[in-house]
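User: I'm preparing a small set of examples for a lab meeting where we compare how different chains pack in three dimensions. I only have the primary sequence for this one, and I'd like the structure in token form so I can line it up with the others. Please keep the answer compact; I'll paste it straight into my notes.
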Amino acid sequence: MVEMPERRQAVRIVVPWRLSGRVLDGREVRILDLSTAGVGVEHDDPLQPGASCTMEIPLPFGALQLAARVVWSLLRDGGELREDGPRCRYQSGLAFTGLTPEQRAALARALETLRAGRGAPEREQVR
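Assistant: Understood. Below is the structure token output for the 127-residue chain.
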């Protein structure tokens, strides 16, 4: 397996519980990790790298709707069989775009809440 160089610019906080978000084309996603620069998500259908979207992130103080761009999307698991057929799982990385100062502040507050609430393991990764 080829290791890709890490390109993240911000520390990401791993979300330890099941936190659902939504890409505002109606697609439900599971939020895996979050930073001031982007979000890692898991979902059932592929996202197109380069595509623009709006990511909705539910937070205790209200949902954030943030403009984002799909940086990468990979098939992670294609083996779970269900009554309605096989289920594929994808993981994608989205980079936030054009955040306002208010959105940046709300995102920073959400990250602080995540850190404080569970002693989040930080993954120092540079993009």
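A couple of notes for your slides: The chain has one domain: 18-117. Confidence is low (pLDDT under 50) at residues 118-127.

User: Perfect, thanks.
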